[in-house]
């Protein structure tokens, strides 16, 4: 929108926040599924002594990947929805305060 | 000058090969020595599925965000900032998904290599077992009168790994 103006339907932001929260729950389920499946049983990387460092390295990588999923879940499922709800609330508050000057 | 391998040499060879076979056996199942291809493939599939889920979820989120910012429900500076944030966020998720794909491909490659190495190891292990069995029988059938005068009686195929030519029973000595 030109000229620094804006247009807002606060309900749309609140609805988007709710949809993203659902998405966050889906990411949380994905993270749980990945966490359960990224547990290689003993011997996955072989039985030679050199297999142990490979096993440890994979676990570290999987741990990093899981951390990435949790960061994603926190952002999509919690932080962004919270920011959207705050934005919606701010718009409504500002509108109410602006209206108060004319009462 | 050549020298005939004598019975004590055969016994030493049997002992050495038995040691090698024993060392391999102590490590565990030779068919899984280089890794468990099935487990490796399960891990690969898990990463591949995670990558696919991330892309699906990002698409859904992008659609939700677009429905607000591009259909007139939210316009202005804050809406533009949100759109820019969401675009960068989607790029980061795509990067994460790509790394899961790379891990899936690497694990799939390791599984294939482990399968090949395990097959080779199993083949060698079985060849050693056959050789030891035949060599042990042959050592018992050596005619003591032949020792030092000719090659010991070793059954055909002894010491012959699959796909290899039979090895001689003589060695060079200086």
Explain this structure to me?
The complex is a heterodimer of chains A (103) and B (174). With 103 residues, chain A is an all-alpha fold. Chain A has a domain at 53-97. Chain A has helices spanning 10-37, 51-100; one strand spanning 7-8. Chain A is rod-shaped and about 80 Å long. Helix content of chain B is 68%, strand content 5%. Chain B has three helices and three strands; from the N terminus they run βααβαβ. A two-stranded antiparallel sheet of chain B has the order 1-3. Chain B is rod-shaped, with a radius of gyration of 32 Å. Chain A binds chain B through residues 1, 4-9, 12-13, 15-16, 19-20, 23, 26-27, 30, 33-34, 37-38, 40-41, 43-48, 51, 58, 61, 65, 68-69, 72, 75-76, 80, 84, 87, and chain B through 27-29, 32-36, 39-40, 42-43, 46-47, 50, 53-54, 57, 60-61, 64-65, 67-68, 72-79, 82, 85, 89, 93, 96, 99-100, 103, 110, 114. Strand 1 of chain A pairs antiparallel with strand 2 of chain B.
Give the helix/strand layout:
The complex is a heterodimer of chains A (103) and B (174).
Chain A: E1 7-8, H1 10-37, H2 51-100
Helix pairs in contact in A: 1-2
Chain B: E1 2-4, H1 7-27, H2 37-69, E2 74-75, H3 77-141, E3 170-172
Antiparallel strand pairs in B: 1-3
Keywords:
heterodimer, A: 103 residues, mainly alpha, rod-shaped, B: 174 residues, Helix Hairpins, two-stranded antiparallel ribbon, 3 helices, 3 strands
Strand content of chain B: under 5%
- Quaternary structure state of the chains depicted: heterodimer
CATH level-1 class of one domain in chain B: Mainly Alpha
The profile of the biggest β sheet of chain B is: 2 strands, antiparallel
Question: Count of DSSP E strands of chain A?
Answer: 1
Pair with the most extensive interface? A-B, 41 and 42 residues
Task: Work out the radius of gyration of chain B.
Answer: 32 Å
Helix content of chain B: 55-70%
- By CATH, the topology of one domain in chain B is Helix Hairpins
**Stretches of chain A where pLDDT falls below 50 for ≥5 residues?**
none
The number of helical segments of chain B is: 3
Mean pLDDT of chain B: 81
Q: Write down the secondary-structure element order of chain A.
A: EHH
Major sheet summary line of chain A: none
**H/E series of chain B, N to C?**
EHHEHE
Q: Helix coverage percent of residues of chain A?
A: over 70%
């Amino acid at each position: 929108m030109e000229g620094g103006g804006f247009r807002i339907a606060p309900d749309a932001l609140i609805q988007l926040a709710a949809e993203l929260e659902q998405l966050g729950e889906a990411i949380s389920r994905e993270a749980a599924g990945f966490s359960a499946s990224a547990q290689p049983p003993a011997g996955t990387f072989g039985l030679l002594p050199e297999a142990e460092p490979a096993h440890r390295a994979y676990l570290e990588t999987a741990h990093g990947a899981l951390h990435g999923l949790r960061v994603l879940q926190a952002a999509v499922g919690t932080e962004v929805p919270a920011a959207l709800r705050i934005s919606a609330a701010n718009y409504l508050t500002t509108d109410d305060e602006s209206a108060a000057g004319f009462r | 000058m050549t020298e005939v391998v004598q019975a004590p040499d055969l016994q030493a060879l049997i002992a050495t090969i038995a040691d090698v076979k024993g060392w391999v056996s102590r490590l565990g199942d030779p068919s899984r020595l280089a890794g468990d291809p099935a487990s490796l493939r399960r891990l690969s599939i898990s990463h591949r599925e995670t990558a696919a889920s991330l892309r699906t979820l990002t698409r859904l989120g992008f659609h939700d965000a677009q429905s607000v910012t591009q259909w007139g429900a939210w316009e202005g500076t804050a809406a533009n900032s949100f759109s820019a944030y969401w675009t960068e966020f989607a790029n980061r998720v795509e990067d994460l998904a790509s790394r899961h794909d790379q891990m899936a491909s690497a694990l799939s490659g390791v599984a294939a290599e482990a399968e090949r190495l395990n097959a080779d190891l199993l083949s060698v292990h079985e060849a050693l077992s056959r050789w030891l069995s035949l060599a042990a029988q042959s050592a018992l059938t050596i005619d003591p009168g032949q020792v030092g005068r000719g090659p010991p009686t070793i059954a055909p195929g002894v010491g012959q790994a699959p796909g290899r030519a039979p090895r001689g029973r003589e060695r060079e000595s200086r």
